[in-house]
Amino acid sequence: MQISDIPIHSLKPYTRNPKQHDSDQVRQIAASIKAFGFNVPVLSDKNGEVIAGHGRLLAAQQLGLDTVPVIHIEHLDDDQKRAFMLADNRLNELGGGWNKELLSLELSDLVDADFDIELTGFTEDDLLDNQLAITDDDCERADEAPALTEIPITRLGDTWLLGSHKLICADATKKDAVMSFIQNDDVEIMFTDPPYGVNYDSRKNGVIMGDRTQATIPFSFSVAVEKVLNKNARIYLCGGGSN
Fold this sequence. Notes:
The chain is of the alpha/beta class. It has helices at about 25-35, 55-65, 80-90, 100-110, 125-145, 175-180, 215-230; strands at about 5, 40-45, 50, 65-70, 160, 165-170, 185-190, 200, 205, 230-235. Helix 1 (about 25-35) crosses helix 2 (about 55-65) and helix 4 (about 100-110) packs across helix 5 (about 125-145). It is rod-shaped and about 100 Å long.
């Protein structure tokens, strides 16, 4: 296809063009042409009637240009020209969307380079809104519990080493389990949250298993106090009002 510089006055906008271009959009297109050049030619038929590029033509007039690059389309009949005009505008509006992370990276890099990102059609407010949306999405994903696996990763008796800390999957009321976990360590603090004994029932989360049973509390305390904690240890106990 050949691109020709055609005088603006020889081009005729399609009188039934349903796509509207307000003054703000024309101003942005004009700013883009001024910054980057007229990189996307206007499409017209052999008679100079515009098929695509009405907004660019208006922007060129606003800039006071005498000519614009034009590609003459001659292989379409009248119905095809009308259909292509609609498709050229409508298909750009449909589907795809934006990858928020990549868009944020591109806009942020342009801002860091002191580039006027409004020339892209985006604003710094758009960049901030996009970054906040990414943060919100990350928070929502972080709050989602992973799906349960058929074979659990952690099983009864497993001990996890977390840096200088240890975490065991076990019953704290079982003396052998506690002793095998503590071994020869000197325990200085015990933080425990035994059953409240209040028979808590949440409509959202249901009943807490074992919440009403307090018979194991004295035994678990005796294991901790007599066998695990040193004589100067501190005990922090969470409990319900009825305890």
